[in-house]
Design goal:
By secondary structure, the protein is α+β, with helices and mostly antiparallel strands. It has 7 helices and 26 strands. Strand 13 and strand 14 form a beta hairpin. GO terms for molecular function: acid phosphatase activity; metal ion binding.
């Protein structure tokens, strides 16, 4: 099986935001005209967790075939501008892009860094003197409170829609200003094998991506031909398959994160290989033994959602995610599950391994001048789907296959807020595209997880994010 190597890229691409355009770098690569002899610089830079989050960072970027060296430079952020004269330098590897053969994919890892420390970085080809714009990242702390952003389904099928998705990311980072990283629940682009769509999304998001770390899961729209794996430097288990995506885990402060790949398949598990499920069981158990206070799972095709996919066979059949994977969440002491795929906002009550909702004690508090309820020592896992950070939204699923028994599992299961703007002209089964986006800011400390959900409505509030939900979990030992 063809294996992808370590690479990474930074871009001189345009970054556009606000109501149309963001400040940017240079032009997006044009694949139809690009030849390997034309150097379009560095593009599609992403930073990921790789290994020990306190002391290392993974990077991926793209270049033309002229840039064969894969160099990362890292320096502590001690001034307002970066001076790479005495930077730590790391070399990675490159290989041809699977879906854009005229480009090289570069991957590299910076190691030996200090915990809870801010760094500048740049990626490029030291031999040719070609570098990306300067980015920043912060290594994980050894302990203590941290905040991250969760979003899903940026999934743009045009450049205009990619600009909209990039605006959501930019606004999320501005709104949740202390977020150390961004969790993406999959369907990053609409067709993963079309490199042009990665150019659009990662290009217009480049300014944001240069200044955060992304924790991506593979969606079903990037499930072919290494489309996901080419774009992110993932520390997957040795020997695991990567053609359809990747599964992996990492520790951050007192929490353990598990990212699943719901693009695999087996007779026993729809969407999952038996190897992955066995790895999940062992990984979660090891995290508990190591003292993780929280376990958080990122899965694209989640078991508990409220729109079109809630009645899909690979979700609700006997070997589906709801019947086979969901019971493991409670059994493995998973606290919180973030999902994608269904393009609607919903969150559940705690659900135990029998698939039943439990009723924890609730503690009320005030946050953002609003009441927030915390579930105290919940018996079961809580599931959230953060709607979409991109253009495509769904209606609530009215199927009799679900009914009151299913919807009673949910704390919140409203109709999509975009429904008020009418059906999409090209597909009246869905609300009109591009009107409403969502993201969630999540803060975790020793015994409390707090989630605040934001909405962006392009038709009101000057398209600025506003709070539509907030909730949390408290653990009392």
């Amino acid at each position: 099986m063809f294996k992808k190597f370590q690479k990474w890229s930074a871009t001189s691409m345009s970054v556009t935001l606000a109501l149309g355009l963001i400040t940017g770098m240079s032009a997006l690569p044009v694949h139809a005209e690009s030849s390997g002899n034309t150097d379009h610089g560095i593009s599609k830079v992403t930073a990921t967790f790789y290994g020990d989050t306190k002391g290392s960072k993974g990077f991926t970027w793209y270049t033309s075939k002229l840039s064969t060296k894969s160099t990362v430079q890292v320096i502590k952020k001690t001034a307002s501008e970066a001076d790479f004269t005495s930077a730590l330098t790391f070399e990675g590897t490159s290989s041809p892009s699977t879906n854009s053969p005229e480009e090289l994919v570069h991957k590299a890892v910076a190691t030996g860094l200090q915990a809870d420390t801010a760094y500048y970085y740049r990626v490029g080809d030291a031999a040719r003197g070609i570098w990306s714009e300067t980015g920043t990242f912060q290594t994980a702390p050894k302990s203590g409170e941290f905040t991250f952003i969760d979003l899903a389904d940026t999934q743009a099928k045009s450049e205009d829609e990619a600009i909209l998705s990039s605006q959501t990311l930019e606004k999320a980072l501005q709104t949740v200003g202390n977020a150390q990283f961004v969790v993406h629940n999959g369907d990053i682009v609409d067709t993963g094998t079309k490199e042009e769509q990665w150019d659009w999304l990662l290009g217009h998001s480049q300014k944001s991506l240069l200044n955060t770390t992304i924790v991506p899961s593979a969606g079903n729209h990037e499930d072919e031909n290494y489309a996901f794996y080419d774009h992110f430097n993932i520390n997957q288990p040795a020997g695991s398959a990567t053609k359809t995506g990747a599964y992996y885990s990492f520790d951050y402060s007192n929490a353990h994160f598990i990212v699943l790949n719901s693009n695999e398949d087996s007779e026993k598990y729809a969407n999952f290989s038996e190897d992955q499920v066995e790895w999940l069981k062992k990984d979660a158990a090891a995290a508990k033994r190591a003292g993780a206070k929280w376990i958080i799972v990122n899965i694209h095709k989640g078991p508990y959602t409220t729109s079109n996919h809630a009645t899909d066979s690979d979700i609700m059949d006997n070997n589906g995610v709801r019947n086979q994977i969901a019971p493991l969440m409670d059994k493995l002491d998973i606290d919180f599950v973030v999902q994608g795929h269904d393009h609607i906002y919903a969150r559940t009550k705690p659900i135990n391994q029998e698939g039943k909702a439990t009723t924890p004690t609730k503690l009320k508090d005030t946050l953002n001048d609003k009441t927030i309820e915390y579930s105290v020592n919940p018996d079961g896992s809580i599931y959230v789907i953060p709607a979409t950070a991109g253009p495509k939204v769904y209606y609530k699923n009215p199927s009799e296959k679900l009914g009151d028994k299913y919807y009673n599992l949910f704390e919140l299961a409203e109709e999509n807020h975009a429904a008020v703007y009418g059906p999409d002209p090209s597909d009246n089964r869905r609300p009109v595209r591009g009107q409403v986006q969502n993201f969630v800011g999540i803060t975790v400390d020793e015994n409390k997880l707090t989630a605040v959900t934001y909405e962006i409505d392009q038709n009101k509030n000057d398209a600025k994010p506003f709070i539509v939900d907030q909730f949390g979990i408290i653990k009392k030992y």
